[in-house]
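Lecture notes, unit on binding sites. The following record was shown on slide 14. It pairs a sequence with zinc ion.
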Amino acid sequence: MVRVTCLGGVGMVTGSSYLIESAAGKKVLVDCGLFQGGKNMEERNWKEWGFDPARISTLFLTHAHIDHSGKIPKLVKDGFQGRILASPPTAELCSIMLLDAAHVQEMDAEWQTRKNKRRSNMEVLPLYTTEDAEASLRLFAPIEKDKIVEPEPGIRARMRNSGHILGSSVLELWVEEGRAPLKMVFSGDLGKKNQLIVQDPHEIFDADYLFLESTYGNRLHRSLEESKVELMEAIQYAVSHKEKVLIPAFAVERTQELLYILGEFQRAGRLPKIPIFVDSPLAIKATQIFRKNKKYYDKEAQAIVDQGYDPFDMPNLRFTESTEESRAINKSEGSAIIIAGNGMCTAGRIRHHLKHNLWRPGTSLVIVGFQAQGSTGRQIVDGAKQVRILGETVSVKAKVFTIGGFSAHADQNDLLEWAGHFESNPRVFLVHGEPSASEALAAKIRERLGLDVYIPKWKERLVLKPREMAVEEAAEPEALPDFQAAMANAIVELENQLKNLKKEVRSRKNMGEDDVDRLKYIEEEIKGMIEERRQ
Ligand SMILES: [Zn+2]
Ligand SMILES: [Zn+2]
């Protein structure tokens, strides 16, 4: 049997991570994400792992987003020495994102320490440092998509395109279990068909267990075309008031998608002649990685390249790298489009732009990404009249445009369609969603696809057997040393087999003597094995 401990990304959208333990004692991780969205959530990043990172041989990484990769440097700091298997663009994107995350951690700790000094002298340490991030980058081993790899005996894996961001993958994972391997599929974050830039999600037909994301399990996105119209409205609103268009956006994918659409507007002669700023050093580097990885583009993006354009460039576009350049934007008069991180308005340069513009009537605030509970962005979307930004209370006078159609996530229909390709009736675990989203999707999957669905809880340990499932109480992992746990599991399984066998012997009346003898013999043998293992 295989045990899967849900370390994060269950009942919530951040902190994705699963520990997979085979009966043979192999331990691998799928994703190692940071918890984000408010203080309570972030405290989880400091909790004990519940296992020894030094004993993890392989980490499979579905994609570069921090909610899937952001705790890797901490894992390495705490002893992980194995390999990190990811697609080549994921590895490249992580090379900038993990360093950036380390920098944010260091800055945060420094700020907290300074703040504490006024009260006590407690020094606050960062979750991890730039050095830890650099050490983790040395462990990346890129693997090409669609190829089966066997990082160690008994464990095989294949990455398929998930259509979410550049290089994002669905993971197919086979763990050898006696006669037949047990196959798990981790959707990672799943995109949708006809998404900008990236290719459509790969369809998969076979799995014993499916770990499916459910970020938008209760929602249907508006179409991309409608969203483009809304974006144009937001731009025109601010331009007509000579104010700014603020777009908080994740540095990876969303920023490039926005540039891609603005480029379309520009080439069609529809974009007002105002400056466009990408005010995020991380987004600048990410855009360079996008430009390098053209082979991962879909047909439409490829066609733009073939016509001689850069899909992420325009004459009036400026990438501002230094803080001086960033500050200068706020002194500038008149309209401009400002794309800056982070996407949930909880950190990054967007906070400065919000402080300067959110209180100005005529400003457009364009929300294009998911806003986690507790984040500043979510408060604004939920209609807050005032929010705290950089230690100040700022009124919300800007017009807020919430545009859902740019999501890099599948919506309810997309998720149902993708899950509907499985022909093997997998058991489904719904993960990576807030409870209301997961529950709504669970009901739809049961109703439309007739599959068994379970929504795991944080730290819950699932026991998977081929075509069977059991849920253990949420227990601290590693309560028993490994081999003892494996033995205990084996005994339970043998006892169950014995029970079934006895039942069968009793119920089958018209069996030949040979059959009865044979069954008795098997029964004796199992009893013997149990005795042996108990000693
Ligand atoms: Zn993602
Ligand atoms: Zn995610």
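Take-home: Confidence is low (pLDDT under 50) at residues 475-485.
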